[in-house]
Amino acid sequence: MAAINPARYPVRLDGESADVGDAEELVVLLDVLNGRRDRDVLTQLRPHLPQIIRKPSDLPLLMRGLDRDDQIFLVEAMGDSLADALQTARHLRELLATIAEPQVRLSVIDTLGGPGLRKLIVTARDLSGALEWTYAQRSRRLLELLGADYLLRLIRHGDDLALALNALAEDAQSALLDSIGFARVAELTRNARDLALLLRALPPTISATLLDQFDRQQLVEIIGDRRAWIYLYNRIRPDEAVQLLAKLGADNAL
What sign has the CA pseudo-torsion 91, 93, 97, 103? Predict the structure, then answer.
């Protein structure tokens, strides 16, 4: 049985025409034009870009040769097909890592939207990897689009949350913790390791607020025994140790 040829889409410039069937051919065409007619080509192909850009390597390949505005045009033209082209959170992270302009990263996040991001980001490690390359308001936008309910499905334990927090600046850390709720964060903290990871990920002002969520009995249950206390004590800041000892009762500490 003969193979079915993929669809090809015409581009016409100055009385000449060329057909494009995939991302590699589109890159060649743009290279031949040497950046002079990128927007003309992309505009003509816009209805067909989701059919041309079909695999995760296609987008980074194309984006490298485009200026910022044309990168945004390309991303927005993909629309709901962007998540299908990227396929996995790893490929989303790799795309974000290749983008130099913050506005283009924001365009990727907004074009994916909540549904697209939830299709790609399915574990806490996926979330951390995406946040690592978003920064500032892009991180907050990504968290907002995922939504608090979905974040709670991804973040099941304290170590999951610490992964995400380590990828965030302080203001975005606050936004994530506010979204989840400090009381829920306390519930996610299972043991001394979880608590140590969370405290190491947070600046002093936020870690103090987190420790305020625990009463003495909760801390005794989380820390468990003297060996766990030593593990925790060796991994936290002096101010956190002082706050913990005060809550435990210095004379009754583990």
Answer: positive
